[in-house]
Protein 1
Amino acid sequence: MRDERLSMKGDAVESMQHTLQEGKPAIFASYGMIGAVLLLGGAGLLADRYWGTGPWLLVAGLLTGLVIGLYEVARILRH
């Protein structure tokens, strides 16, 4: 009985590793998208506070992050 439990755990680990390997491009694409929007949106927010330009640099940063993020998603998923 004990050997069956150990082999089931090994099978479960192998199955999980296989699933993660198959989903790796989607994981990278989603993190790239989130990172681009947060990084460029944050840079726009800081630039707005420094220069006092209102929400315009924040909006520009968010839109630029969205465009770059979508480009990276398309590039990763194309392969």
Note: The mean pLDDT is 87.
Protein 2
Amino acid sequence: MNDDGSAAAAPDAHHRRTLVRKTATAVIVGADDALVEILGFEPDDLVGKTSLDFIHPEDQTLAVENWMEMLGSPGPARSLRLRHRHANGLFVWLELTNHNLLDDPAHNCVVADMRDLSDDLPPESDPAVGVDAVASLSSDAGRPMRVHEAIRARELLLHRLAEALPVGVLHVDASGRVLYTNQRLHTIVGRDRADTYGAQLSTVVAEDTVRVTEAFDAALHGGLDNDVEMRVGSSGDPGEKEQRQCTLAVRALVADDGEITGAVATVTDVTDSVRMREELRLRATFDKLTRCFNRASTVEALEKMLDDDSDGGRPAVIFVDLDRFKGINDDFGHAAGDELLEVVASRLQRAVREGDVVGRIGGDEFLVLCPGIATAAQAMRAATRVADSLRHAVKLDSGQVACRASVGVAWTADPAADADQLIGHADLAMYEAKRADSGHPVMYRPAA
């Protein structure tokens, strides 16, 4: 550094080191001739431009952070390695140390000590350049650049892999501070990168945050892995109000000496899978037309009722078969028949108690299961309510039709009775009711 504040030529005989003067806003105001050998620019080509104009886009965030840190205190900032644009359009690696001399009346600028590392050679052992304000380079400055490039290539590969994953990725240090997130995580949780994992996952519904906190605590304090389910209030789509179902997998990061250095977590949006499973469950459980239980799930429900004697009673089985249903299909069409079945199902569901089951087991056949029935008389009262609910005419789109059903009832106190036996007895009673054609339910009676 000359006494007038201008940058002195670097004493490096090979011109692998240069000094550049900048304002507090990083505008270049002066450079030495060594810059021509390193970057190919004449000093006048750089004056008036900001240093960011010559730094590789991927390195600019690091450069800005270092610059702001340097402005906070006089003297040299920590050294860092950045790629700088050469006059030929390529980029070369320089090790840079910014020195805050803004409060020094003799200089009133920032002096950047820049060392060329592109030849993969260690720094020269020459004395420090310029006045004592220009410090020596960092201790790892001699690391060959091929190693540095290999590390950056590995980091870039990992970053690209993380961005390609269909799951959110979250990396935190031992204190829970966020070190890395990928874009998929932001999309799933509906917020940009935050400082801590708690803030990053702040859209998790309140009831699930305890499990999330426990999973991270187990990893960061005990080195334990954990998988938990959680719901996220928003996926980031302003038009979506439904909660997202997610799985969170937290894995502790433990060094060779046993120290816990942090944790990595993945967040998988399983909403579509949950919806699909639920849809398959509904299809396997309920009749699509009437939304009653289907035959298989009705029989399964009866078997569970027979196994459960906690209510002190036994289930009654009420078999319902619509009268003259085929004539309605023939006269009005199958669409009218489907419409009638929907009305019948709705009336049956309104006629039964909470906990009773209404199932459609055939074209126009329904089963009503009533658990906890103590006597045959109580079973008959339930069957009468069912029969009465179907006595009134139904107004369809194609016209009004009469509605009536034959109803058979089976109930027994015998604990050995099984589902197939009860359904068979109710079916026999239903046929007896159909022959009587009275509209009243018939209770199954064993043959004398």
Note: The domain at 165-273 is CATH 3.30.450.20 (Beta-Lactamase).
